[in-house]
## 1
Amino acid sequence: MKPQTQGSHRFVLYLGFPSGLSLRVEDWFRSFFRISGFWFRVSGFPVPGSTRTSLYLHEHSRSLPRMYRPGKVKRFDFPTGRGVAGKYVIERPLGSGWEGEVYAIIERNTGIRRAAKFYYPHRDPTGKAAIAYARKLDALRHCPILMQYHHQEVAYVKKKKVTVVISELVEGKKLSEFLFDQPGHRLSTFEALNVLYLLAKGIAPIHARGEYHGDIHDNNIMIRRQGIGFEVKLLDFFDLGAPSRSKIRKDVLNLVEVFHTTVGGRKHYAQQPKVVKDIIRGLRDSLILERFQSAGDIARHLENLEW
């Protein structure tokens, strides 16, 4: 069984059998899938000090309890102009993930633009995930790098109750899209260091509270040029359970991976200056965590650079 990570939380599981049968199963933590008529349960969690994931495969049974029976993921795919909860109008999609979809919306009465996260009913049937998400946003409201929570709404889609979290609309482009538009699909060394500093400085107060973000990657970072620098914001975060040092360290590793991407990735790593390699450290978890234990450590390292 060979696990490989994709993005921040998704894993790919390869199963080998004596008969030579090989299966590739893409799923998420705490999920079920079926092989030859039997249901199996997969649970996974990040390995402390590593970007890898430990997986457990449990034979379950030939049937699943009703509440756990997986079905085809049903997307919302709301069209522009659709009304929501009688108060808002869909402007455009912003992104989607395992839990739901995010849209830019316009408040009918005021014309104010917001962001709305619509939770899939089959992913969050009781609304607990949405509540936890809103509470965490509110608890971290003094961290300006995060979008600001406003309130919750309830909408009905095809007669199903859908929880909607309304928050600040973050302007700009996803970092992945922004990089695609740059020469060579990367930033200069100074620009990349600037972006890393803004991210580290913004996440440092979260780590200082003993909290974590859990979903730092280039599709979850909004960026726009502002004057001679940049403005960056983090979008969604992911609930990996109770805060811990290992989850904070995972944020650190993800920050360094984002920095690696902004300077051009593996293709350009050999030609990078020492100031870049001293941070990326060959993307070796142990070497990175030997130097940086939190986002604050990265920010202080950048503040004291001599180059």
Note: The first strand starts at residue 2 and ends at 6.
## 2
Amino acid sequence: MISRQLPTFRTPRLTVRPRTVGDLEACMAMDRDPEVTRFLPGPWADPVAHRAFVEERMRHEYPVGMGYWSIVASEGFVGWVLLTPLDLHGPEIEIGWRLVRAAWGRGHATEAARPVLEHALNTLGLEQVIADIDPANTASVRVAQKLGFWPAGTVPYNGRRVIRYVAGPAAAADASNQSSSAAVTASGS
């Protein structure tokens, strides 16, 4: 049986631990940087709505083994990783990451998201995890690729199209079937 308490992961440079109310101010400060939230709609400019949004995410009752993890480096809080039902409703399960700008380009997103993805696939036994990423967000696209995600098409998101990246056994089977079909079509046409 999986514990309701999210696991803590330690990597060579990071601690990836369950997010707590003590992380609220650091999360809000990160979100107020317009470069950090450039690809994500949200109440970032309205302090009252922003606080209510983050507090609601902290109080939300996620499925067992899912939620938000804070990323802590030697300098302190540097961001978070989430594993939740898509838009909190599912049925798809998404992984996402957000880091303070000072932590960009240092490999922290990949290093922190990797154990969360392994937890999703190996501990929770999920068949597929998704990451919907704006194609202009090249840094997040690179993180997804390093984690073994591959593009599975586009999906609508907040009035525009984003690329859905997928990982996991079901995603691998779909990709294999699509490449087999493409090979047959290319050689048989």
Note: The beta strands are 9-10, 15-18, 67-73, 76-85, 93-99, 129-133, 150-157, 160-167.
## 3
Amino acid sequence: MKWIKGILLGLVILLLLIAGMLAYLLQASGKVSDFKAWQPQTGISVHGLTVNFFGVSTLLLDDGHDQILIDGFFSRPSLRQVITRPIQSDKLLLEQLVECHELSRTQAILVSHSHYDHVLDVPALLEMLPETAVVGSPSTLNIARANPKVTPQQLQPIKPGQVQQWGNFQITALRSQHTPPTAVNDDLGEKLLQPLTLPAKFSEFKEGGSFDYLIEHAGYKILVKASTGFIPEQLQHLEVDILFLGIAQLSRQSAAYQQQYLAETLNLLKPKVVIPVHWDDFFQPLKQPLQFLPRLADDTPKSLQLLIQAAETQGTKVILLSGPQPYLLNSAFASQSD
């Protein structure tokens, strides 16, 4: 009997070690407060072109008259919800955000790709914003069609390389690449050929192709690159004032990939300002302060340091937005022109 008790005790200890290790890996990979030097003052009364960062790569550009929304992910279901059940939008939260941020002024929702952490809330938003269009891949449009109240006029197929006017914004979509695949994110290139039925499992949201967006407004150029992927020499003839640059899992890539990614984006585009995106733990609700991705997914401090070092080498200012308060992009332009 003693040997049985010994085996049981060993199993208990092993399970406790596994549970402890898992708890450690699910903790944030660092503290956002350690990067306070790169966080600007936000939330003050501002007039001009502003951006609100809602985590991942959901960005609201607002000039006081028109708005452009990059991606649509506010509901942020928990890890337990994502793993154990089909997911859907938090409609009460969306109604509050629509009112709080006057999203009825949104001209278009520009979707970078069709994974749930970029597009989950688009079908519900389009119902609440009947004058707003969604621009995206066929997969994105099939996700939007999950809501029967979305009209055909709201569904705008993406047209890479063509300039489109949305209010005061000129938009050009550019073909891009997703972050290199992982064991749980290995659907790159897969498409949704039929309208999605919501709620749906996270794995039912297929990438469907990835895109960057060049946004021109009042003489300034902004590029939004949501994913940590690139097409070689795709951006070689382009320079921008502000670059929103995805850094998810940059620390997990090889040194050669890290160097080439920053060379193909930051070095080629020569922005005055670079603002990292897709660095936060999107299993945490929006009402809580944004925190870094868990250790299991990334070493976000390392990813940020790689970007900061490369940016400072070429004289590009790094701004870390850590919440949905409005940040005046005009101040970023001004600070770099002095």
Note: The mean pLDDT is 91.
